[in-house]
Amino acid sequence: MTLRQAQGERGVMKFIDVLHFASGSLRGSRSRTLLMILAMSIGVAAVVVLTGLGEGARRYVINQFSSLGTNLVIVFPGRTETAGVGPGMLLGQIPRELSLDDAQELLRSRAILRIAPLTVGSSQISQGALNREVVVLGSTSDLLGVRHMSLGQGQFLPSGDVHASESVCVLGVKIKRELFGTASAIGEWVRLGDRRFRVVGVLASQGESMGMNTDELVIVPVASAHLLFNTSGLFRILVEAKNRDRIEQAKRDVEDILLRRHKGERDVTVITQDAVLATFDRILRALTLAVGGIAAISLSVAGILIMNVMLIAVSQRVKEIGLLKALGAPAKQIKNLFFAEAILLSGIGSVVGLMLGEIGVLVIGKIYPSLPVVAPWWAVLAAIGISLGTGILFSVWPARRAARLAYPFHV
User: Fold this and answer.
1) Which of 1, 14, 85, 269 could potentially form a cystine with 80 if both were Cys, beta carbons 3.0 to 4.6 Å apart?
2) Rounded to 5, what percent of the chain is helix, strand, coil?
3) What's the pTM?
4) Helix spans in 67-194 (H)
5) Is the pLDDT of residue 197 over 90?
6) Cα separations (Å) of 259 from 65, 109, 188, 238?
7) 261 burial level (CB within 10 Å; 0-12, 13-18, 19+)
8) Residue whose C-alpha is closest to residue 120's, from 36, 34, 24, 235
9) DSSP 234
10) Of 29-33, 60-64, 350-354, 396-400, which has the strongest mean pLDDT?
């Protein structure tokens, strides 16, 4: 055996001896050890769960906006200022309405593929003796493609003149089930307000999107919705660009066209889907970091607990430390023994906390299945890193105090 190999074996044995000594010390005071592991694990679990909730909220919002469609530009009536309201609104003025002609004029842009004007209201729907309140959405045949909706039965709204007020409707799957049960609804008549509509299609189940449950929605031609609600303005205009690279061009074209139609007055708000997503993404990432940081504070509390308990342990283990020094253990070795205890405590606490945090994330996911709760990888690494870091940091003082104890000891 070479000298280098012999030195290597002695190094391994020393490391094993340090771990054995540290684990033996922890087993000797089980109540104290369990309390410190519990404190550390609660901190790690809190970081995992809270960052998981923040990341889940971020993904939920992104999924909701993505479900609206792709390459979208959204047009709102009224000019939204920094404060959230236009100056005209402060004077009691109503924003200028968007009209169907405004919407149709947008198709002149070469960057725009299709549009879907929207009018929204609520009405009583009835079929025979059954009736209930529903949200009625007025739009055109292009809504199906713009919003990426799916049909379960029948067909969607007919294409053609947007000003034609045909008496047809498409039902959400829940509305169809409540009014017609298992029987086919295609070709049947329902009453919305004081008008009758023939059912031409039923949407496939798609759940909630941006606060609107499509399963409980009734869709009619936009001109029919205007007659139903006695209005002529549009709630929104959804504009789909031809591709992702032309979104900004589509936005500029929309602003220019409406500026000309409204006689030079900038009285609409035009936003892109990507801009909204980026804003929410930044906000929710910052929120996730904030709640993770707040949870990480509990790890410093656990570190202080480790420091206090180890300081007490130093005073209780004076004879043991003296014996080690009498056997020739240098001050550095004494420090390493205490560091090893802190690392073991923090490491075990981190693993237990990680397990508790993942269990908590799974439970929340089961309770709220629509919320994609998952702890981001950086939060897991940060929680473990902070746990180990605080354990070692707060063991420095006790370790130095143990190493500086007077020598020789009378044991």
Assistant:
1) 269
2) 55, 20, 25
3) 0.62
4) 87-90, 100-105, 143-146, 173-180
5) yes
6) 27, 14, 44, 17
7) middle
8) 235
9) B
10) 350-354
